Amino acid sequence: MTKVSSGQWERSGRSLPGASKVSTTGCVITRLSEGSQPSIELSALEKAVLMKIASQVNDSRLSDALVTQVNAVNVSARTDKSGGGYYLDFSGLEGLSTDCLARHPLELDVAAPDGKNRLFFHLYLEHGRMSFMELSSTGEWPEDETEIRLDVG
User: Fold this and answer.
1) What does the alpha-carbon distance between residue 9 and residue 103 come to, in Å, rounded to a whole number?
2) Chain mean position to CA 128
3) pTM summary value
């Protein structure tokens, strides 16, 4: 299932009106004034997955930019956890964009707790910001997410 069109895979090179640019470890981060957004918090698993994905990025500039976004992100929508997985849509990053995040999607693949299936996590980026994440399984999505181990390949 694809939610992103090919045009969303490109980095945005345009400047935004009213934006201030801050350089952190060589990566340009654009901050805009924040709007009011309702927020749903990340689950412990979702935050751990995002941090694990960030830690696996080889370029420290990209990794640092991702960690900044993970710590600021809200969930704007979460589909039902039924069948083989679910989706998360992100918000709260309107004021935080980077020109460094160019590799899409960022992925994580681990063994499912049942020892038979695999779990896949795909993080999609749009215009330098985390846009949404797909969480899927080759079997049924585990009922008890506390049994998912991200360090088990």
Assistant:
1) 8
2) 11
3) 0.73
* Residue 128, C-beta contacts closer than 8 angstroms, at least 6 positions apart: 11, 12, 30, 97, 98, 99, 100, 101
Mean of pLDDT over the chain: 75
At residue 78, does pLDDT exceed 70?
Answer: yes
Distance CA 74, CA 79 (A): 15
Which of these, 33, 45, 69, 68, lies nearest to 143 by C-alpha position? 45
Does residue 25 contact residue 61 with C-beta atoms inside 8 Å? yes
Residue type, 48: A
Peptide bond into 105 cis (omega under 30): yes
Question: Of the candidates 46, 43, 45, 62, which has an alpha carbon nearest to the alpha carbon of residue 54?
Answer: 62
Distance CA 121, CA 107 (A): 6
Q: What are phi and psi of 26, to 5 degrees?
A: 85, 0
CA distance 25 to 97: 15
Q: Which residues pair with 106 in a beta bridge?
A: 123
